[in-house]
Amino acid sequence: MEARFGTIVFSSKFDSGNLARVERVTKRTPSPHNEAGAASAANLPDYEFNVWTQPDCAGTEHENGNRTWFHFSVQGAAPAKLLKINVMNMNNQRKLYSQGMAPLVRTLPGKNKWERIRDRPGTEIVRNQFILSFTHRLPEVRGATTFFSFCFPFSYAECQEMLQRLDDSHCDAARLGPASPPDDIYYRRELLCRSLDGNRVDLLTVTNCSGMRDEREPRLPRLFPDAAVPRPHRFDNKKVFFLSSRVHPGETPSSFVFNGFLDFILRKDDPRAHALRNLFVFKLIPMLNPDGVVRGHYRTDSRGVNLNRQYMNPSPELHPSIYAAKTLLLYHHLHKDARPAGPSLRVQAPPSHVAPADQHEAPDLTALEVSLNQRNAAKDPTLRRPELVLATEENGRTAKDRVGGSSGSSEIVGAAAEPPQGGATQVARTEEDEQKAVLPKEGGVAYYVDLHGHASKRGCFMYGNNLPDENHQVENMLYPRLIAINSPHFDFLGCNFSEKNMYARDKHDGQSKEGSGRVAVHKAIGILHSYTLECNYNTGKSLNAVPAACHDNGRATPPLAPAFPLKYTPEIFEQVGRAVAISALDMAECNPWPRLVLSEHSCLGNLRAWVLKHVRSTKVQNAHLGAKAQQHRKTSPPKTLLKPGLCRLDGNLVQTSFTRAPQPRRKRKPKRRAPRGRSGQPPTAKDCGPEHILASVKFSKCELQPHVGARNKKAGGSDGAVARLAKSRPSVIIQAADEERSKQQTCKSHKRTTARAHVVK
């Protein structure tokens, strides 16, 4: 999009740009005759514009309500002028901006580094629409271009440039083999698949040459389309650490955490990075949703789909990156224990024109699926569920192994394959070995971490799964606790491991978190360490006291932490990424520069006992809250009654069997408070003056004036009610009333006597 206002040009025609419409605001000149008008004239901006962000998939049938991300440039304004921008249609991010969040600005040429604007932005809600307003003093450089963004941008082009630099610096890694020195860094970049728009979804493999085999990883079905690039070698006695980022394109902090992690494990002179490469084979996906990043989306892909809800049953046609990531995880989980002497595995995809006998057409789309854009396949009903077909070279039997216990997990099907060339004899596996289930501890995947950004909750924290076994839950929570020891910005108490958070539904589209990578991968392969790492866009709630490292000669000792949380920067996000890597070493107790030794726990066993105590106390607290809520539910009466009636559904009145009928409100009677004495005790006659007595007790006319009662008695009235009322009154109050009445009568008689004496004189 591009808009011109004289010499001023607004543009979003670049990677990750987002701008829908621009409108110039006419100047409102205040009156110069009053002082308030003169003061406001000094702060009046030289230029003011209203801008509108573009929702995800704007102008298509998949358009949705995600309107948080903005990224545009301004060029051609006069130097050193004050510019005001009003973003008119953002999603309601009032909580984020109330915590001090500010837009980012960069000027080219000039200040190449992104910075937060200095003046605090203003927010308001007009007609239920959130409006963000901010001002910026333009640079004094003539012809400069100023960029504004919601958060620190990291575009698809920047990601490709970074990967190209890594390719150039590790160009010798392609020639490494089993005979290479074991300490050499093994780095490979592959094209995992293409997105719906044809963008690259890259896969990085990082480890060292120890344990390398001659065999290479198989070419999985529908994946790795570039046949000219060979697959990486396979490694013995190394598990996979899987890290992914940018499934939500607007959550840019995840890219900086990813970059910090990647930079650390590629260090050549750090013994911790060397220990990590000895221990793991890292499989890294820098961008799961490149289409959304290029288009400037905030949360969805080019079809308006939230890809982090499609892991239960991803489609290779509709969700290629999610299908590729889950396929890769399933493969490495199953093939960790293969030996060099054993038969190799080769993966074949079934011919596109031949459908397997046990494969059926996908059912018709439901109205819910169409409305939520979960599959977006209404125009192509021939799409079928994907299956991974593993062809073994040693036999031609067909077998099905379902991984894990989830109904939504992918199936791995063995199919017949061509016999190997050379006529070498093959050792056939027994049918029992083929159908043997792989336990989580025996699988080839050790960690799964998906990186995200967060708008409302402050700090950096993790979402984890709730495991029924107590020992497994302790190990699950031990890893994020170690990250808090290695990073001052990670908030362990802000982590969430509840079962409710595994199945909660989104407020906007109603999709369940059961389809997220964290939950679906755990259900598919039973992995213990499956997490979502969240980083706030702005700042945290508190800082951790990070202990010094041992045996590092000061190289890993952190600087003194500030007393309060700082505004997050790319450097802080990268430090969190390094802590994610280092904590995996602490879990294996092979960190050459540990901080745990100088912490309050001193060893992993003590920290594990602390986490166990935390797990048990959390269970007791949750059980107490649940019992209290259940008791309140039982004792509280129903607030509404149900009766037949009509309800409105999709704009139409529909007959229903029951609707809610609210009961009429009951008027609450005001409570009378008894007067209190000076010490808080019930009042005495001494404490209570006449005003207090008369205000607290309602006396009849007969009680205060006995002659009236006598007059009524002569007239035939009865003072029995008066007598009964007098008996029921406290004697102290009656006595005080009599004293007050006698004082008033004495005062009146004294006035009459004085007046008569004056007349006589």
Please, could you describe this protein's structure?
By secondary structure, this protein is α+β, with helices and mostly antiparallel strands. Helix content is 29%, strand content 21%. The protein contains 19 helices and 26 strands. The strands form six sheets. A seven-stranded mixed sheet has the order 12-13-17-16-22-24-23, sandwiched between helices. The longest helix has 32 residues, at 604-635. The termini are far apart.
List strands and helices in order, with pairings.
Elements: E1 2-5, E2 8-11, E3 21-24, H1 35-42, E4 47-52, E5 71-75, E6 82-90, H2 94-98, E7 104-108, E8 115-116, E9 122-126, E10 129-137, E11 145-149, H3 156-169, E12 185-194, E13 200-208, E14 212-216, E15 233-235, E16 239-244, H4 253-265, H5 271-279, E17 280-285, H6 290-295, H7 320-334, E18 345-347, H8 367-372, E19 388-392, E20 400-402, E21 411-415, H9 431-434, E22 445-454, E23 460-464, H10 470-486, H11 500-503, H12 517-525, E24 529-536, H13 570-588, H14 604-635, E25 640-649, E26 652-662, H15 690-696, H16 701-704, H17 706-714, H18 720-728, H19 731-760
Parallel strand pairs: 4-6, 16-17, 16-22, 19-21, 22-24
Antiparallel strand pairs: 1-2, 2-5, 3-4, 5-11, 6-10, 7-8, 7-11, 9-10, 12-13, 13-17, 14-15, 18-19, 20-21, 23-24, 25-26
Helix pairs in contact: 4-13, 5-13, 10-13, 10-14
